[in-house]
Amino acid sequence: MKIQEGKPSSLQEESKTMTSQNSIKYMSPPKYTSMYFYKESNTLVGTTNFLAWKKMTDLLLKENELLDLIKGNITIPAKEQTQALAKYNTDETRAQRILIESIKNSLIPYVSKFETSKEICDKLIELFSISTAGEVISLRNDLYKMKISKEGIAPYFMKISKMRDQLQELGEVMSDREMTIVVLNALPKD
To answer: DSSP of 136-147, one letter per residue?
Structure first.
């Protein structure tokens, strides 16, 4: 028996089929398989990547039809509605799993007491969106105060480029005009 190229995940086991040549062919993966790629590529570590994490998480939840849970648009069905309640519980578990698997392990204690995916997401937003604003203000101030040192212009441009990238990671985009003002402000008065 031959396995076709690619590394199948355990979730893909559900979708394998036998072909006439006695080899395994993997069909398209089931929903929410992409969360495994997501876990490795965009783990929330703190304020530095909060906005990127939030965007990626929202897209992943939307792709899996779970974003309405996080936004609080879906209420818990009555106990008599057994099928609806079962679907709600399954979706809630999936949403919580996506959130928990997308954050650094050291952040789990901050959200472990919460029972719903909305509560988990709200706590993460509370923890990181406020400090993101403070970090943006601090970076902008440092950028405007920075002067070209005796080291020369190349190290200066490296520093301001790094700071501009940090601001972009926080969702703060600086225009070319604003960067020109920063550079002109940094020139010596002589």
So the answer is: HHHHHHHHHH--
